[in-house]
Amino acid sequence: MAAAPPPGAGVPTSLRRTLGVWQVSIAGVGVILGAGVYALIGPAAASAGSAVWLSFVLAGTAAGLTAYSYARLGAMRPRNSPEFQYTALAFGPRVGFVAGWLMLAADLLAAATVALGFGGYLGHLAGTRVTIGALALLGLAGLVMSLGIAQSVTLAVALTVVEAAGLIFVAAIGVPSWIGPDYLEMPRGLEGVWGAASLIFFAYLGFDELGNFAEEMRHPERDLARALGLAMVVSTAIYILVGVSAVALVPWRELAASPAPLALAAGRVLGPRADLALSLVALAATANTVLLLLVSSSRSIYGMASAGALPAVLSRVGRSATPWVATVLVLAVTAALLLAGSLAQVAAMTDAAVLSSFALVNASLAWLAWRGRAGGRRVLDRSVPLLAAALCVMLLLHVGLRSLAAAAGLALVGLALARTARLESTANTLDP
User: Fold this and answer.
1) Is 129 contained in some domain?
2) Cβ–Cβ under 8 Å, residues 165 and 280
3) pLDDT tens profile 229-249
4) Helix, strand or coil for residue 19?
5) Does residue 4 form part of some domain?
6) Most buried among 217, 303, 306, 386, using CB within 10 Å?
7) What is the tens place of the pLDDT at every residue in 355-402?
8) What is the rounded CA–CA span in Å between residue 53 and residue 254?
């Protein structure tokens, strides 16, 4: 008589490598082209005026240079929870934990905020309560995530096509109006442009999440850098075109006063039909952003738990090769954060946490390069991350005192947790 299989037989013990460069690139574009630009271009216009496109350039440059650091460090350490892994390479696991903690907190805050945005658009169309719509989205996202990474990314690709099409449409209908506006009208001068850049930096969040797909990519050492580059170039180009078209179609003062600035811009050409069309696109955009943030957050927790920085139970993998315990935790915490505040408020707090984490990642590559531990690109690996870190700090100085205080508080919580976490065991595994 055959022996019964042991408990857990057939259950994967690690994530499944199924993703290629194009899947991850499109997923990166999808999470970058999220809800931020649909809502935040109005408040950004209030600060930067018609020069809001320049704010996109500044934010995109800071994000793009930081993406270089992610690509180089990802080639050295292609593991999930990239902020934790990369920073620990240079400064040890405790500092790495703080960097990973800041990014994880920012992702969950952003997911909750964008879920509320989904609930708002759904309420606008169907009359449902905002929180009910947001919770329904979390439930659907959890169901998709339980099916596996391939299914999650496949849905994200489909939603990416919809949201990208909406932004490209706004950019295209504004082309006939490009001649005429003063694109350097800055009501608050360059200070306002920098302030707007710090706000709309929220719209660039997502490229950093691609590192969380490293353990599910077939060739992460080669393809992660390519995916990062493709996602950043495509997203930045679309953002700049949208910024130019928006201020060409609608004076910046009207954009600043509108709760749905891109719908207002499209309405100048299409009339009332634009409201429904852009609302449907916004539903796809917000749903896509929430799904990808939740997927990447669960992988970040899995990566930190696998390295011993979080309880080992959070690294458990289910039959669909997904980190199911981390997924449940991410969904629960995000649901609890749905009352975190308005999109603009939480976007600023999110940016403060993200920029702090980015500065640590950039400093990590520069430090490793100076010590000769980053490979053969010493000049680039020293200069690019230092410039990126300087831009991150510059943007950080414009997020506001409340947001800076929130980021500092999160960092202190991370330090306290790092003192009690089982980090000693990660010291050897994190050495390059």
Assistant:
1) yes
2) no
3) 788 888 888 899 999 999 999
4) strand
5) no
6) 303
7) 998 999 999 999 998 888 766 677 888 899 999 999 999 999 888 888
8) 16
Answer yes or no: is 429 within a domain: no
| Residue in this structure with the two tokens 């849905």, named with its chain if needed | 155
Residue 233's CB is within 10 A of a number of other CB atoms, namely 15
* Domain region containing 156: 21-423
Side chain identity, residue 204 = Y
| Amino acid (1-letter code) at residue 219 | H
Residue at 125 is within a domain: yes
Integer-rounded Cα Rg, in Å, for the chain is 21
The helix/strand count (H/E) of the chain reads as 16, 0
Q: Are 160 and 33 in contact (CB under 8 A)?
A: yes
Q: Into how many domains does the chain fold?
A: 1
Residues 6+ apart with CB under 8 A from 347: 36, 40, 110, 113, 199, 202
User: How far is 253 from 246, CA to CA, in rounded Å?
Assistant: 11
The number of beta carbons lying within 10 Å of the beta carbon of residue 262 is 27
Q: What would the DSSP string read from start to end of 161-207?
A: HHHHHHHHHHHHHTGGG-SSS-TT--TTHHHHHHHHHHHHGGGGTTG
Instruction: Work out the burial of residue 353: count CB atoms within 10 Å of its CB; fewer than 13 is exposed, 13-18 middle, 19 or more buried.
Output: buried
